[in-house]
Fold each of these.
Amino acid sequence: MNPRPDLEQALDYYRQQYDEIGGRLLRLQQELTQARRDARRNRTIALIVQRLYECANQQEFVIESLGETLIALLVESLGVDCAALLYWQDPVDQCRLEYGLGLTTDFALPLPDAPPVRATSLNPGTLPIAAQAVLQSEGLRSWLWLAIPEAGQALLLGNRQLKKVIDDQALEEADQVIAAAALKVYLGLREQQKTFRALQIAETNYRTLFESAHEAFVVFDVRNGALLDANQRTVELMGCSLTELRRCLPANWMVSAEWVWKRSWLRALAGRPQRFECEIHTATDQCLWVEINLNRIHAGQQRLLLAVVRDVTQRRQSEQQLRHHAFHDALTQLPNRALVLQSL
């Protein structure tokens, strides 16, 4: 009996098993390498996002520092020789350097009417030949261009020395993903900070106008009638602090005119501006005649009522004096003929 065929068969079997195991190990190594690249990419993106948010939330934040931080993070994280944020304005003819490292301050690229969203040194796409020539003159052997046309912004990354023997002119795909994510986060934070700054300026202007107004301004919550805010003129008119004003309902300040206030309140809520005069008593037990203008306003999703209150006490007193003089004798202060005729 010859054991040779059995041995060959066993060897073939083990060779087949070895090849399968080797193939599995190779696939596992490839998957592990890809997982490491993904983990590195995700860590880098998370780090850049964290640093950008930290920069944006600094107490003495300026928008310019956000772009400088982004460029420094990209150079450090991706190990590139240069990075730059570029901008262009209509009409599009060239983009200029806004923030950058590794490029001259007068760096500029000629652009077509529709700048490409993405271009690389291996696949320049629609990036003009003149722009590619500028990049070559800067000594960039490999580069990546990413643009957000609607924002008029682009990100340029580049290397001046070859880092690979094969396919050495292209930045890794993971680097492109990192750069694209970083650019979008930067633009989002920049717009957020611009909006926040504009809101702060608007609030400052509003508060200045609100506090410097000659009339008393009072803001009410339409849901419960609570006083939300009032300017300094209101405090002076009512003779008490804003905190004390908030403790009382508006009708409590009226002198026998609660029904007028309630009727005007309901009409103003319906979108019909109201204007009426009534007598109020202040915290110092002084009675004043005031003219009140009620209007419904919107602050975002919140509905409010704005009351503009003007002291008309002197005018009412003058009108009463004129009426008295018109219907009473100047010497005796007794009713004259005009009052008698009016009564009839």
Amino acid sequence: MQQADPQMNESTKIHYLMNGLRQSLCTETRRNYPTSTQGFLQQVKIAEELTALNTNFTSTSIDNDDITPYDSFSYSTTSSYPTANN
């Protein structure tokens, strides 16, 4: 296991932190590339919130795709068409 170097500069710390990110957080975090470890933490939190919102929105959209326009209509069991017995 590699030891942490307390003398490491901010850009090197950010480089190592970025390489350890999950892919789902990496793109959003790189979009506003942080210049400090504190900025990195803020960007990752924002990326995590956006990912969670996107996941919730996608799963809700998929659930709603199961509903067809016909599901909202109510059907009557009596027919309005004339039958042969009328």
Amino acid sequence: MLFRPVISLSSSRILIRSVVVGLLLCVFDIWVDVTLLGEGDLSQQLFAPEPVEVWVRLLLFSLSVAAGLFVQRLYRSLARADIELNSLRSDLEWRINERTIELENAMRKIEQQRYQRELLLNSTSDGIYGLDREGKTTFINQSGAAMLGYRPDELIGKHSHTQMHHSHADGREYPEKSCRMRAAVRDGETKYVSDEVLWREDGSSFRRGVAILRKFVLGIQAQANSKT
């Protein structure tokens, strides 16, 4: 698409220019030979019985001029293409910068919302933690972690039933498939479970009433609110 105008639209003009310029240069060269070097008459040089040298000169000059004009037009086309390419590159860089700013603003907003959520959760004395559908802890506030004897980062990503709800008060194993908290989270139900046994990091246990609430926070999560 870029070189089509050079070859198809201007080929006739290039040919005519090359022939005319070549003819003029050839006549000028012969005129120099005649006037300055005294090599015969101009008409004799042009219409000699064997003017091979004249037409060879004409052909060479024509080809030279045609090549020069072609290269000139090609150079101009490449220059225009380079300008268009630079314009496209600048536009692409501008769009990338714009999208980057939008992404940074979105990430900053998400981080601000996360900070506000954590601030709200940590402002209550009740223990609050979130579970995903696999039963892993997605978040827990300071009060909830303190009740269990852990730091919050020690519980994030861990299987909650295995870590804090694995046994009955008498020490018997509490199968996860029988866990009412886990079932409520899995089924997306809202349920209150009274007198639930939770286990601390040091091996001791305590009883709490637990409310399981369905909540959408980056996916379906449930909040377990430990009440005194």
